[in-house]
Design brief:
The protein is mainly α and 131 residues long. It has one domain. α1 runs antiparallel to α5 and α4 packs antiparallel against α5. The longest helix has 31 residues. The two termini are 14 Å apart.
């Protein structure tokens, strides 16, 4: 029984670390290269205000989420709440992409690729929150 709990804990922490690395990478990329981050979506950043928005939403938010996920990996008392919150945010992002299907067809990359990433990550975090 103890071995099973340890295995679940290891899987839980692994899922959290993978999600944290994803958010950290997104955050760093968003801070360093905001125009390149949004270019695949057909978005152009023509001024400092646009770059600031991408740095805030992708950069700062991504790093903040990575940090709280890191904290959840080491503190079981906050783990479920953090995981549910991040999972809900990812599910909301995926739902927003799904809603865009009513706006017209989009290419698999980037829209549907990130839809799958967000939906799978949300499901994994929801499941992990229950462990």
């Amino acid at each position: 029984m103890v071995t099973s709990y340890v295995a679940e804990l290891e899987v839980s922490v692994l899922v959290i670390i993978v999600a944290a690395v994803f958010f950290a990478a997104m955050g760093l990329y968003g801070l360093a290269a905001p125009a390149r981050l949004v270019a695949p979506f057909g978005t152009r950043l023509d001024g400092a205000a646009g770059r600031s928005e991408v740095r805030a939403v992708y950069g700062g938010f991504g790093l903040a989420i990575a940090a709280v996920l890191g904290y959840a990996a080491v503190d079981p008392e906050v783990r479920a709440g953090v995981l549910l919150t991040v999972a809900a945010a990812l599910a909301g992002m995926a739902a927003g992409r799904l809603a865009s299907a009513f706006d017209g067809p989009t290419a698999f990359y980037p829209n549907w690729f990130y839809f799958l990433v967000e939906a799978v990550a949300a499901a994994a975090l929801f499941a992990t929150a229950r462990l």
